[in-house]
């Protein structure tokens, strides 16, 4: 009987010790053979912009698989859906920070969401990396906020400048969504770029998310006969705008921001998408070995080519993995410091460094849609 009790106590002690080990792995820590970390993801997985989130989470899962196979870092992803809304993004962030105890967050997808989530992550000392948030001021939210996506303030002037060079543009019309942080930021950059290049802005029209009829705005634009339309929209509104523009006989090119740089625009607008000009660090036709390896692996896994949102997410997780190696453990503050030191990281987007604000430094290329496909605008 005594022996039995003793054996029982030993068994309990062993179980408690084992449970303790399991627990420390779950919240991140040193797994012995490298750093093990839980990374939260907030992504736009359901709703009208779900293709953005699909590309992002697909690429994150691919990167996770590759990184874990390499063995130096082990990443567990905890993926939450924001449905493209700040409220849901905030609940997701609170869950990831407080219940899941993640070491860092990737996302959310939209700047409109990041404006709400960024300050919460920052106040809680949780590093947060936007891989698609492009409005002005995102990295400035705080020391824990980073992004590897090209800001509108860089992308828009590059596209407008190229269109002016190639087409001799003098008059532009601007159209933008006035209920979203990203589309408003895009508008600011469009207005600035037009002014800097001495272009005449013949009219500025606005719309809202989910709007289905743009005839009133487009008719006014048509009457003023601009040489180019600058349109700041997410793909679901942007594609419909292009379609309705072509339907009423507007055939001038469009310059769009990051939201327009999605295969969804071609999917929804068809031929009407021809003539769209965007600036991006990502092009699947890039012949670099790293890019082609990623394109092949992504295609094998998901049966389609990765878009800009996939590429930015893919590099994003690798940047976090590199920083975890440098940090040496799954510690939020150490990871933040390591992320801030990101310099000359070689990714599929090219060479990435963060400036002193945590913003990305990169050069975009300009693409245009012709015959139903994105190609280099030259
Ligand atoms: C932002 C964006 C969108 C296009 C992401 C999908 O750039 O909200 O900042």
Automatic annotation (TrEMBL):
Transmembrane segments: none annotated. It comes from the Bacteria. Residues 38-364 form the Leucine-binding protein domain. CDD domains: PBP1_ABC_HAAT-like. Coiled coil: none annotated. Keywords: Amino-acid transport, Signal, Transport. GO terms for biological process: amino acid transport. PANTHER family: LEUCINE-SPECIFIC-BINDING PROTEIN, PERIPLASMIC BINDING PROTEIN OF ABC TRANSPORTER FOR NATURAL AMINO ACIDS. Belongs to the leucine-binding protein family. This is Branched-chain amino acid transport system substrate-binding protein. It comes from Bacillus oleivorans. The lineage of its organism: Bacteria, Bacillati, Bacillota, Bacilli, Bacillales.
